[in-house]
């Protein structure tokens, strides 16, 4: 079976990982350097929100913010932020929050609603988008334009997910530097490391692709895919799960290591469920995840592990994708979704599935087309 | 004759590092007996100072007094990290080079004053240069 016959968008995007990261890096850092010092200094709390992959970028970047800025950081869902979060969290002192809102198009209705609500109560707002003239940008005090070429291939989201993360990392570094939580040397080193880490990861992409294709051949007949990850790795797990649905419409679930043992462990037919575990040596729950992995072994589920640890740390029967170990642990989510992106893309191609069921009119209705807009009504409470 | 030598230094935060030995090293290497040695750093938030420091307390006082006169503030027009913005002003006011007399192959101020690399932000990797201009023989 020739892998080249099953080329797909996710694979093409993954192969251009470094190229796109550089484009965004060069676009966002000069803009982030212009963010006013006073408002950054004032921030007592940080909220990051968005919809879908954009929200996941916030989850993925939360460890970076907590590690580099030392400011309490939350990544609530857009619907929670826009409709349920108490107003007390959004006003001036003592809370004085910085709210970062992410939408590639800048048109996601719920994210715009979040921006309006945050502004109404006095919070500082920063939009991360590829459209600086979008409604989201217009409703935020500041805008970071990720600078991706408009004619790029970005569906299903991979490049845009990374673009959001790079912009978030840049903001985190700026805050850390201004608030004196990282030294100038650390700031420069982290900035440099971002590019060199991605460059090193790029060298392994073809190896991932080859092995992922083999995994896709073995997994294409499975009943479901179940993802497990903690803290920032939870975003990688959730992102992988989203790709299952977006690419081939598969059944999938995701959880953290603890709740997985309480809930997903009991899924029926475990030998027909592919388990994808993200576990890094730097993770605070590394040992708990090892126990979880042992439970997966007992269940005899096919299992793929993505980790910056050596493969010897895991059972021999499992397919381990060892990723480049970053100098700063919070950079891991930037590349660790890549191995399963390939698997998802190739399973879809092997099944002859079209992304987002575009060839099925039930998924092509006006309602479905409108899904990214998340409805039209904007309610500010 | 003109002789130039570059040096690298990793500074601490708001630090003063004695670099007199490196200036003497450049003078010795140049072979110049009488003339001028200029020590300069081209960084925007660092400087070169002459200090008579009889004890660490004097250095501490100088750093504290500089920070008192030009504190790190968040409302400088230059919107960088507060220490960095204050550092630009310190560098401009306190200078980024010194000129020293070389007599008989030695600094005239030897034993009385020392040359310091002043870091107004940091820690950072920095460079400075020593240019010795003069005659090889007296």
Principal-axes shape call of chain B: elongated
Number of helices of chain B: 3
Q: What is the CATH class name of chain B?
A: Mainly Beta
CATH superfamily of the largest domain in chain A: Glucose-6-phosphate isomerase like protein, domain 1
Query: Please, what is the CATH homologous superfamily of chain B?
Result: YjbQ-like
Shape of chain A: globular
Beta strands of chain A, count: 10
**Terminal Cα span of chain A:** 56 Å
Which spans of chain A have pLDDT < 50 for at least 5 consecutive residues? none
Query: What is the spatial order of strands in the main beta sheet of chain A?
Result: 2-1-3-4-5
Q: What do we call the CATH topology of chain B?
A: Jelly Rolls
Find the CATH topology of the largest domain in chain A.
Answer: Rossmann fold
Contiguous runs where pLDDT drops below 50 for at least 5 residues of chain B? none
- CATH first level of the largest domain in chain A: which class? Alpha Beta
Overall mean pLDDT of chain A: 94
Number of distinct beta strands of chain B: 8
Please describe what this structure looks like.
The complex is a heterodimer of chains A (381) and B (138). Chain A is α/β, with parallel strands linked by helices. Chain A has two domains: 3-196, Glucose-6-phosphate isomerase like protein, domain 1 (Rossmann fold, 3-Layer(aba) Sandwich), CATH 3.40.50.10490; 204-356, Rossmann fold. Chain A has 14 helices and ten strands. Chain A has a five-stranded parallel beta sheet, sandwiched between helices. In chain A, helix 8 packs antiparallel against helix 9 (184-219) and helix 9 (184-219) packs parallel to helix 13 (338-351). The longest helix of chain A has 36 residues, at 184-219. Chain A is globular, with a radius of gyration of 20 Å. The termini of chain A are far apart. In chain A, 52% of the residues are buried. The model of chain A has no long low-confidence stretch (mean pLDDT 94). In chain B, a hairpin with a 2-residue loop joins strand 5 (97-103) and strand 6. Chain B is of the alpha+beta class and 138 residues long. Helices cover 28% and strands 37% of the residues of chain B. Chain B has one domain (2-135): Jelly Rolls (Sandwich), CATH 2.60.120.460. Chains A and B meet through helix 3 and helix 9 of A and helix 3 of B.
